[in-house]
Amino acid sequence: MSKISKELLVSNKLGIHARPAAMFVRLANKFDCQVFVEKDGDRVNGKSIMGLMMLAAGPGSRLLVYAEGVEAAKAVQELEALLKRNFDEE
User: Fold this and answer.
1) Which residue, 84, 63, 82, 86, is CA-closest to 12?
2) CATH number, domain with residue 8
3) Packing angle, helices 72-84 and 18-28, rounded to 10
4) Number of domains in the chain
């Protein structure tokens, strides 16, 4: 079992609103691992749309994504790719 964390930048224009949160959660749920997201000291379950929305992660926010489990590295890698492509919004 592995643990990995990575700081990611929210770079899409509207930040993490309902649609990007749903995309993040849908992707995170594909992996056999736990996923957590932290912003400004608040940590939430990365497999919870409401949790992600509560972070109020606007454009320019820095998120620390943690994953622990069998597919932790793959989960963080794919979640990073999702953020880098701006949740396919632009």
Assistant:
1) 86
2) 3.30.1340.10
3) 150
4) 1
Pairing of strands 33-39, 62-69: antiparallel
Q: Which single residue is written with the structure tokens 């949160």?
A: 21
Q: What is the span of the domain harbouring residue 77?
A: 2-88
Instruction: Kindly report the pTM of this predicted structure.
Output: 0.94
| Tokens matching residue 73 | 């590295």
Using alpha carbons, list the distances in angstroms from residue 4 to 1, 62, 65, 78: 10, 16, 8, 13
Condensed to tens digits (0 to 9), the pLDDT of residues 52-81 reads 999 999 999 999 999 999 999 999 999 999
| Residue 17 bears catalytic tag | yes
Which residue in 4, 11, 12, 17 is the catalytic one? 17
DSSP character at residue 88: G
Q: Provide the greatest CA pair distance for the chain.
A: 36
